[in-house]
Automatic annotation (TrEMBL):
Source organism of this protein record: Streptomyces pristinaespiralis (strain ATCC 25486 / DSM 40338 / CBS 914.69 / JCM 4507 / KCC S-0507 / NBRC 13074 / NRRL 2958 / 5647)
UniProt signal peptide: none
EAL domain location: 24-283
Transmembrane segments: none
Location of this fragment in the whole protein: 437 to 720 of 720
Domain of life: Bacteria
Protein name, UniProt field: Diguanylate cyclase/phosphodiesterase with PAS/PAC sensor(S)
Amino acid sequence: RAKSAGGNRFEIADPEADARAITRHGLTNALPAALDRGEFFIEYQPLVHLGDGSVHGAEALVRWCHPQHGVLGPDRFIPLAERTGLIVPLGRWVLQEAVRQARFWSRRHTDGGPLRINVNLSPAQLQHPGLVADTVDVLERSGLEPGALCLEVTESALIGADEDRLKPLRQLAEMGVDIALDDFGTGYSNLANLRRLPVSVLKLDRSFTQGMQRHPADPVDLKIVEGIVSLAHSLELAVTVEGVETAAQAEQLRELGCDTAQGWYYARPGAPDRIHTLVLADAV
Ligand code: C2E
Ligand code: MG
Ligand code: MG
Ligand code: MG
């Protein structure tokens, strides 16, 4: 990191920063071939009903098994893919793979309704003209009902979006696809603005859950979450919380009226058969 301490404003050579930039460059260049060679894979993290702990669905989280660097998390390469546009074919692959997986689960899990699948969309995918057609195509080819798919869009991607930008999401919502506002509470969205967006789920950011780590939890934090939940419910939005790591948090969030939750307390992201096992265990 360039140091500005002591009034020195010039940059000091930082070999670590150089190395990081070189790695970034290398990773960016390697992305297209990695997609061709099938180096990406998806982990699934269950979403559970806070009421009874039953599995509601799973979020698809992409990883890159890099031949030299090992398994890389999305924070390492999604921003690069976003910048080069590779996110569009990569995102299409994730959608196709996750929907295929969800369809497989739904064939084996017939009672209690289909398992839902959540897929993240990045801002570049939102702006890509093929989004609606690609999604319809993926759903039709797999046979998964649109109501079992939830697309997660970050709050920041929708801030200031005009009607044109919202149109594809609106079309998908009209088909029955759920749209979730991911990382909610980290952006600057005007709460009143929510009613204008075609979303049906709010995903409360992990920072709220973290605020509840302390015992007793900060009463102001609790009031804020309570307020968001009641506003969301009055707009007929479901509330999911991310980053639940302890039983105490889960209990607290359940009392505050949150609907579904996700976090290490329930399960870390993992291989697809993990979800399969959880759901089958649930069904017995
Ligand atoms: P996100 O959509 O908010 O996903 C939740 C992140 O929180 C995941 O990180 C998950 O592993 C992590 N997490 C879940 N439970 C806990 C917990 O209890 N404690 C803590 N500390 N962390 C928890 P991950 O897998 O590293 O993904 C990071 C972000 O990368 C995602 O944030 C999402 O924005 C993005 N991403 C992942 N997959 C895709 C994808 O296929 N497409 C796009 N466009 N973005 C993706
Ligand atoms: Mg997400
Ligand atoms: Mg999130
Ligand atoms: Mg997040």
